[in-house]
Amino acid sequence: MSYNPKYFKEKYDINIQLGTSIYQIDDQNQEVLFIKSQIIKQDYNYLIICKELEADFSLLPHRFHSVPPLKNFYLIRKQDEIKWLIEYFNKKNIKDVLVVPGNLLGLKVAKRLSLANKNVSLVQIGYPTLTQINYQILDALDYDMIQMINKDLIDYNVELILKDYISEFYDDKVKLLISDKEIKAQAIVYTNISSNPFVVFPFRKISNFLYHQIYNKNSETKKLAIYNDKQIIVDKNYKTNLKNVYAIGNCIKLPNCMINTEKTELQVDTIKRQINNLLNHIFKKQIKPNKIITQTLYFKLFDLNVAYTGLNKRECNSLKINYKTAHVIPTNTSDDILQQQPIHFQLIFENKTKKILGAQVISKVNIKSKVDVITKMINNNATLNDLKKYCKENKLENDVVGIVTKVALNVSDNKFNQIDHTWIRDLVESNQFILDVRSKEAYNKAHIINAINIPFDELEQRYNEVPKYRPVYIHCRTGRTSYIAIKMLEKLGFSNLTNIQGSFLQLNYYEYFNDKTTNRKKILTDYNFE
């Protein structure tokens, strides 16, 4: 009833035309042309374009772009549909399921299917193209942090396929291109829902939204500004480049609130907020100007809680931002021993200005509120000094947010040298001097293959064993003790010391997945995630 045009007309006095596409917008005469069975002209005072997400089959071989390729192919557009899918699979006795790709929705689908006792395989990309070469799941996180999620998946028997592609689909299996391996798949669940309503795929009927307005070069009407043939460019008031034409929803590209340039991303602003801001702007009811905000994105996989906000390192590199990072792993303070878990916190900030750019946090405990603090700082264009002041005012100096702030300020002020844990394999292969200041027991349980162990409590007596005339890279379990060790050795005349950020605990996660899935030489004698 609620989708019946007659019902809408009677109840809300709203005219609805189904099965129409916009053919052309004439913003000078304020007319819009629709295509139905014929071209229809209609006047407007304000035109608001709202386009939802739709399936993007570009990750599949071209012959499957026209959609659904097989009878066992299932498209999931939102999280609410997962429950229905599991009920259907149980009814049909479907056990082996392939999920494509490894985006946020794909991860949620894989988790729910695994917990429902399905045999789940997760393929990051279905087909190799020049623009879609990606060997990690969930692009929002950086490669080093994503390794923790990789481990969480394989610990729960989700087969993760990153460096291979689907070449053939069958009723009960798929075939991979590179390895020529066959994977059982009674069902294929596809979750690549795109924000681009303007992409035309090969072998697909061209009936795209606003096709004429965007692609017809002979048109005398002003063109709607589109970013990379994907999203409608709007300002902070959701106004397009055409007079009195607005756009909302996931088809838009907003200016990024953290930097002067712009960034394409799925809009995290809620549709309700967009509508309110848009109408307030049109009818001039704003109490204050609209502000584009960054929001904390949070989800729980199996054992891990994941939260992130702002830019990641890869995005900073692509935007040519000179940035630095602070990576700390303090233990959560709680009277409940089960809640005393490490919190892996990576803070990204601009080097020169100390402006906060983003954060990624992973832990077995709930950490959303920690990242909310960083989100608040980003939305206020805050610096590390502002964050330090905030932590002091809110008594967070000993909280993980306060700890990462102190470390970030030390890194920014160049108070000590540091190198990321991602470089340790290179250090091992080049036979650099790596000093492990953990206890003998921890060292004997697992260590870097050529690391020298001098426990911290013995370091003051054995410092002569540490060379002064070659680089020395120091690590402990989480990075805190190694930092203290560096400060102590500097007082003893050492100036060749570098702290390994993330230290041994993060290194275990970073090495684990690739060690398990490839034949490469291991640089750890064993793994220790405690």
From TrEMBL:
Keyword Flavoprotein belongs to the record: yes
The beginning of the lineage is: Bacteria, Bacillati, Mycoplasmatota, Mollicutes, Mycoplasmataceae
- In Pfam terms, one family for this protein is Pyr_redox_2
Q: Which cofactors is this protein said to need?
A: FAD
Recorded GO MF terms: oxidoreductase activity
The record lists the organism as: Mycoplasma capricolum subsp. capripneumoniae 87001
> Does Ribonucleoprotein appear among the keywords?
no
Keywords from the UniProt entry = FAD, Flavoprotein
Occurrences of domain Rhodanese (ranges):
428-514
Q: What is this protein called?
A: Rhodanese domain-containing protein
